[in-house]
Amino acid sequence: MDLVPDFEDRRPGEVATPYPTDAQVPGFRMACGAYFDVMTKLGRAVMRILAVAMGQPATFFDRALARPRAQLRLLRYPAAPPGMTEARLSCGAHTDYGGITILAVDSPGLQVLVPNRTATSNSTPDVVAHPTSRAHASIHGGTWMRVPVVPGTLVVNLADMIARYTNRNFHSTLHRVVHAGVNRDRFSIPFFFDMDAETVVRVLPQFMPGGELANPEVKEVYFPDPIVFGEHLMRQVESTFGAADKRDEATVAAS
């Protein structure tokens, strides 16, 4: 289930959350709203810390986050069917599209790809992922590392726009889910905290080749042209799930 801010003046692509009624699930909407508000405050705090790490004032993202594109997703990964005993890929390798993702999980399964020099276990020679995800992550091979579940903590993944701002000095986190819990369901609550759809994203001068925060070994500008985040988001959604008009045509043809 996907939950989004309850804006009165909705923009294209912004839809209302179809909450169950209180009669159906008592207190559900109130609980989700309270969690959403807390995650929004946490997201702003994390983005301020990230701005400083990127050599910017702490307020660098404030304007872009005046009306953030935020989404709370409630996910259930079903237990394995009877007779299945091996781990299985529940979500393929990908990066997230915007700013950061704050993730709460109840059991292991999340894996992130890291360079071999920092890896400890679970090596893989091949990575199957969306081409744009591979571009932002800038890792075409490496090692899948299991993200430990530490009670009382959250996982924070960087997403594509941070890779763009930093010319891939900060990588967008390429991740996947391998559900090894064959006897029970796995639950995950990611909170996607992204900038306003109209935000223009370009490589910061500090991360240009030769810049004070740039990797001295990198001589290329990976993202030479600025982009509008909302346009990037729609292209990614259409590339992953298909354009809305094509889906509509397929539905009509099937009926």
TrEMBL record:
Keyword field contains Metal-binding: yes
UniProt keyword annotations, A-Z: Iron, Metal-binding, Oxidoreductase
InterPro entries: IPNS-like_FE2OG_OXY, IPNS-like_sf, Iron_ascorbate_oxido_reductase, Oxoglu/Fe-dep_dioxygenase_dom
Superkingdom per UniProt: Eukaryota
Domain Fe2OG dioxygenase: 68-195
Pfam name, any one: 2OG-FeII_Oxy
GO terms assigned for molecular function: metal ion binding; oxidoreductase activity
Membrane-spanning residues: none
Keyword Lipoprotein: no
Similarity comment: Belongs to the iron/ascorbate-dependent oxidoreductase family.
The protein's name in its UniProt record: Fe2OG dioxygenase domain-containing protein
Naturally occurring in which organism (per UniProt): Allomyces macrogynus (strain ATCC 38327)
